[in-house]
Amino acid sequence: MIAELIAAFLKIALVLGTISLVVAYLTYLERKIIGHIQMRMGPMRVGWHGLLQPIADGLKLFLKEDIIPSKADKIVFVIAPIMVLVPAFVVYSVLPFDENFYITQVNVGLFLVLAVSSLGVFGIVMAGWASNSKYSLLGAFRSAAQMLSYEIFLGFSLIGPLMLAGSLNFQNIVRAQADVWFIFYQPLAFIVFFIAALAETNRIPFDLPEAETELVAGFHTEYSGMKFAFFFLAEYANIMAVSTVGIAVFFGGWGGIDAIPLPGIVWYLMKMAVMIFVFIWIRATLPRYRYDQLMRVGWKFMFPLAILNIFVTGLVKFLFL
Amino acid sequence: MVSLTHYLALGAIVFVIGAAGVLMRRNAIIILMSIELMLNSVNITLVGFSRQWGDMTGQVFAIFIITVAAAEAAVGLAILVSLNRDRTALNVDEVNLLKW
Amino acid sequence: MELLFFYMFSAGIIGASLLMVTRANVIHAALLLVLTFFFMSGIFILAGAEFLAVVQVLLYAGGIMVLYLFSIMLMNVEVSVRLRQYHRQSFFAVAASLILIFEVWTVLGRGGSYPAFKGFSWQLGATPGNVEALGSVLYTKYLFPFEVASILLLAAMIGAIVLAKRTIDR
Amino acid sequence: MIELAWLIPLFPALGVVINGFFGTRYTRDNAGHIASLMAGLSFLVVLGIASEMIFGSGGTHTIHLWDWISAGKFSVSIAFLIDPLSTIMLLVVSGVGFLVHVYSVGYLQGDPGYPRFFTYLNLFMLSMFLLVLGDNYLLMFVGWEGVGLCSYLLIGFWYEKKSASDAGKKAFIVNRIGDAGFLLGMFMIWILTDSLTYSEVFQAAPNMTAAGATAIGLLLFIGAAGKSAQIPLYVWLPDAMEGPTPVSALIHAATMVTAGVYMVARTSPIYAMGPGALEVIAIVGAVTAFFAASIGLVQNDIKRVLAYSTVSQLGFMFIALGVGAYATAIFHLMTHAFFKGLMFLGSGSVIHSLHHAPVEQQQDMRYMGGLKSKLPITYWTFVIGALAIAGIPPLAGFWSKDEILANAFFTGHYFIWGLGTAAAFMTAFYMFRLIFMTFHGEMRVDHHAREYIHESPYSMTVPLIILAVLSVVGGIIPGFPLEGGWIHSFLAPSLAKGGAGGHAASEAVQFVRVAVESGGGHEGPTAIILIILAIAIAVGGIALAWFMYMRNPAVPDDLASRFPGLHRLLLNKYYIDEIYEACIIKPIYRLMNSLWSFDANVVDGAVNGASLVTLVSSRFSGIFDLKTVDGAVNGIASMTKFFSQVFKFIQSGMVQNYLFVMLLGIFMMLSAYLFR
Amino acid sequence: MENFLLTLIAFTPLAGAVILMLFFKREQTVAIKVFATAVTVVDFLLSIPLWTRFDTSEAGFQFVQKVSWIPTIGVSYFLGVDGISVLLVLLTTITMIVATVCSFTAIVEREKEYYVCLLLMATGMLGTFMAVDIFLFYVFFEITLVPMYFLIGIWGGKRKLYAAIKFFLYTLFGSVLMLLGILALYFVNLKLGTGTLTFDLTELYAVGPKIPIGLQSWIFLAFFVGFAIKVPMFPFHTWLPDAHVEAPTAGSVILAGILLKMGTYGFVRFVLPLLPQASQMFVPFMVLLSIIGIIYGALVAMAQTDVKKLVAYSSVSHLGFVMLGVFALNQQGILGGQLQMINHGISTGALFLLVGIIYERRHTREISEFGGLSSVMPIYTTIFAITMLSSIGLPGLNGFVGEFLILVGAFKASYVYAAFAVIGIVLGAAYMLWLFQRMFFGTLDNPENQKLTDCTPREILYLLPMVVLMFWIGLYPRPFLSRMEASVGKVVKMVNVAAAPMNTKAAALPAGVRTQPKAKNF
């Protein structure tokens, strides 16, 4: 009993610690990659090729003055970053990293991920409202509408693979792809999923809630220091979580090519790297959507596509499987 | 051990809290939220019975209740939003234009 | 262990909901309600209703409450904070509520002694199955109510749009 | 060759397709040549088949093409039958048809509907071949209707003339009446024999009762009477002369109108079982022969005279059928096709030459005369035809007509024989009246048209000459010796043997043959006397005509003024058309109009009345509703209103109050439960 | 595929209608027309397997699909076709193409709604012919009323409202009575038959002969009124001329081509097999009405001055023939009646199309306005002539085969029937030829007719299939007859279950005319 508890805590600590670190270096990676795509060098000063840059940034944020605007709703203002960060981390409790390496398994794992990640919107809305600032509130509104909308497609796009896997448990979903990854059965679903994932994580081209040029960074305009770091951390944690879900559902999770005997976790990390690179690449390439375009794409294009995918999958499954 | 009585008692208490909220608050939004609370207390009871009988029916009805709650929230909030255009406060005892 | 968690969650539910009912600030009330729902989903997990627990979080917390927050932000909340919060009848209401709780408590306490409950086991059974079992019941036996519920949602959606839409001046 | 019989109708069908689809655009003036070519090709095939039939094995051959209609036990196929009877018919149809095609090339030259005409003509050939070739009654009916359609189309060929389209319509509808009889007869055949195929029907025919066979015979005869213009359905044929003259020659003299004769001859095994029908046929035929001839006496329209003559001659054929001499009837059909075709074409030649005269005078004999020198070929061929029809030996008409009269006499139908002889006399008279009025005497043609009169082109005169030759030899070759000619033995396999009427006829044939061959015997003199009498009657008719129209032209008018009633009666064709108009058509018109007003007013009125009643009653119930029912409702409402005034103060309008009361209710219920 | 082929056929037009309603703007008239045509063509293509894959030896239903629909009262969604209905389904799909194409220029207002109505109509009619569940049949039967009501009421002629309301109420009146009959059957089945709650025709067939004759007569009368109004039989026919005259061309074509067939089809499908004894009993009555219809319709047609009305009354006459064939109650009669339904659909449909063409050019249908048209419109005249000849039953064209079989059947039942019916043939020729003469012959004296143009390629295109079918059925009807034969045989067997003496062949003729007994047995 006690040993189990300790093991659990150890696992949690390991995962969270790793994520925090990885997230920090994600920012570095992003700056580097974008830099190179734009024919620049990116951070170069701190450490070899700027390798220590994230740590320097982190220190800076920790040491910065924590400003709370006077008209703000203080309690909510303080709780908001936590409300953003906590779901982002809670999600990892059920994500599969390897056959045997995970924090826990639940029967409704995928569903839980969706549910918990949908809570992130609370933090954003709270932050936007509590800041008592026009830009923040607008950003919060945008964010809430966008995330509520795209959450639906995110969930719908996953139903197709779920029908094929016949389970909500991540381990089972991954095992169902031992032979063929679902990306081959469900290309349409993956497209919808990926676009929705971009929107869920507020990434370009769907970064309307924080659009720097329009809203001066949106809902976290008024935040600084540690609280701002939380938002930052949560965003990258979300990217990784969503990537993990995508890998687990569409790309066979930890599974790899049998001929190359690598541990599952390595396969997983390789896929993760590719996914994250794509995220960053897209950010470097695409412009931002306009708000009405965002909604139109979502409801008039993605939604029917997702429904169509479910329908076709159901039909095929009913008829042939 | 947790028994059915626990669930029923918890459900009753939450229900009464919700009911009290509905009865004493003037703010319409809080009243709506209290109603949500009442609906949820029923969910607790249903889930308790579902566990008691080892049967899914209770959970199914809990899902229906959530559906109804969602509908109620949507329509209720829509009413409030349109009411809010005409008057500043959302106090239910001031909304009495239709009274005889 | 289970009992411990149950009491913990129950305490959370009761405490948060009491706070929610009494808050003057609507936003705070809403956030407390979210908290209540979290605790409730904990209760559901204890009762073996995993799916329902997740639905509770996803729909109630992630969906309905966001809608509440959204609406609240669209309205002017500062005004109502400064107004009288309680209704004229609140004293009677609280009194009645307390009496009611007392009565329920009594009823539950006397539980097994009523003839109608003769031979009724108050002990809980095994957890009633998984998502699959829920789905198969929902989509077969309760298919019709399910469809009716979906129609209800559709009607509510249209109603909400119609109600909240601003009339556009020509 | 025989198995190629399907080629016979195929060629005209091809012609129909070519001229029908490409006529107005492409073939135009060559339409006549194409159509004639097709008719000629058919004729060649027919010649081949006929030579095989006549000089070869003979017998009966069936060419089965495909199953057509089948429903339960009812089954009919498209199949052709070649036997002696159809061979003779094919020869007549395709031969005369071909000649008329050639003739029409010249006659119709320059007409705007030239390709259309030849399309119809080929269609007619097709239908006629089907009629003759079909191996069952239904296929015969197909051809039967087909020729009726073509007749309709061709009579109304100049459709802008109202009289022409009227005549076409009349022909079709009268034919339809006949067809109704034919149909019923056909059904009855099927009911009684379970088949419509000739071979099967005739196999079963001996099992029929006399009543059944008679009924079938009479029903079929209605059809035959319609098609072959017998009383009472002959009225369409004179009107049909509105069509182009070659049409009259081909359809309304040589081929189509004889379809009825063919059909009765074909059905002879059934008629053999029902002699009553044959009696009726004989009488109708005789009356028609006499009646039509009498009308022909005074007509002035050259084509109408010929038309009534046709009706009369068809009557002769039916006499032959009626007395059971089927082969004789077919024989007369053939010779008649030759000489009547010849005379129609001749009259066409005359009309063609008078092309420039006023329209109403082109066909009127009173405006002709003296054409002999201008139209020598036409004249001489016409005279041959007239002599043939009058019955002057050794021309064709003599052989066949005399056989008919002799048969009638020897089977004991003396009355019929008498009528027939009288008709023969009148035939000789009016035919030569026609010749004398047209070709002899002084020329009465309109002055302007005189210089345009000329002999017709070769495409018209050559058919005339061929037909004239046939009119001369067409009787003596197949018909000699009298009553025992080759044609009888050839046709015998196709026609009924034994049976009531047939038996009598064949006996009579035997008598006559004996009489002729031996020149003695107790019946022999009678036969010879009859022959001499016939010749005498023919000569007498000619002589009378000569006397009245050449020698002493005043006599006709004199006679007309002395018997004005009779003359008018004859001139107006016994007022038959008027009687039909008054007795049948007018009533139908009246009936249809009154039915229409009945429909519009009574039947529909009932419907509208019902709706009106509904409306009115709804109005009343509306008033009732307003006053009584609604009054009660309003009363209750005002009562409620009164009480509500009292109770409204309970309602605070505040939801929370209500909810509180609800909660109190729960409280009370629980308390009741608790403290029970 | 075979299982829901029928569903696919029946609901393709409906889907088309919905798409038309939702995704097309009112102004996109060309797109609307093209789309509507495409839908009908696709529907026709879908229905081709019904022709090619039809098993001619099978008498029962084929391509069946059965799904429980309202289990509490035993209603099922049960589609199927047999020989009786398969050709009607095909006729419907073809006619719908024609009806759509012929409306391109004739309808110039509210096109979108118009084509939606047409497509809805198609679904209703197809469903009617496919339904095996009698309740489902009733539902489809009623559905057809609504779009037709709009077709007449919105795009009709001068008295369109009167005609539309009359059509609607009249037929509704009939079908309500029919509903009573259906319910009676349903409850009788509970008591006498399987004892289950069912509207399934294949099960109800079994209970039919067990119903006592008194009750059967009542049910028969209920069905009779419903179907006789639809057919329409004398004296229930007066809605037809009004509806025909006022309806737009496509409406008339559908009305004549298909809608009327629902009545006759109903008699063959329901009345004869379900109520055999009553059918036997009512034969004289039905035949009398049929014959009155034949002669009366023809005579009244002759009196008409409006072309369309004339054709409408000719429909009354022709459908009298169909009913005569059906109530001959033997193989030939019913088969002929069935074929004549198809024939009438083709011929009369084509006649209405032709009348529509001339109406579009001259905006009048008065016969006296025309005359001598054949010189300005030769192609039109030719097609009209062929159609007219097919209508009056000239051998070689389709009308003859059907009419002939009907008369054979009628004669087999009794010679008296046939003797009266042939009068109709004569009169039919009379009014048609008279019409033809008045319209096309004579001189072209009306100056307005002189600049008439002949058929356009589009008009020829949609008339052509009709003409081809006329010749096909006329010359080689075997494929059509063979498809119907087995099913009709089954109906005949079912209706003669009580073996009434009147229907044996010997009774057809008076005693003295019958064949001598030694003849082979029939």
What can you tell me about this protein's structure?
The complex is a heteropentamer of chains A (321), B (100), C (170), D (676) and E (522). Chain A is mainly alpha-helical. Chain A has one domain (69-320). In chain A, 70% of the residues lie in helices and 0% in strands. Chain A is globular and about 65 Å long. In chain A, 46% of the residues are buried. Chain B is mainly alpha-helical and 100 residues long. Chain B has one domain (4-89): Helix Hairpins. Chain B has helices spanning 4-24, 28-53, 57-86. The longest helix of chain B is centred in the last third of the chain and has 30 residues, at 57-86. Chain C is built from seven helices and no strands. Chain C has 170 residues and is mostly helical. Chain C is globular, with a radius of gyration of 21 Å. The longest helix of chain C is centred in the middle third of the chain and has 25 residues, at 50-74. Chain E has 522 residues and is mainly alpha-helical. Chain E has a domain at 287-522. Chain E contains 19 helices and two strands. Chain E has a two-stranded antiparallel ribbon. In chain E, a hairpin with a 4-residue loop joins strand 1 (62-70) and strand 2 (75-81). Classes of the chains: A mainly alpha (321), B mainly alpha (100), C mainly alpha (170), D mainly alpha (676), E mainly alpha (522).
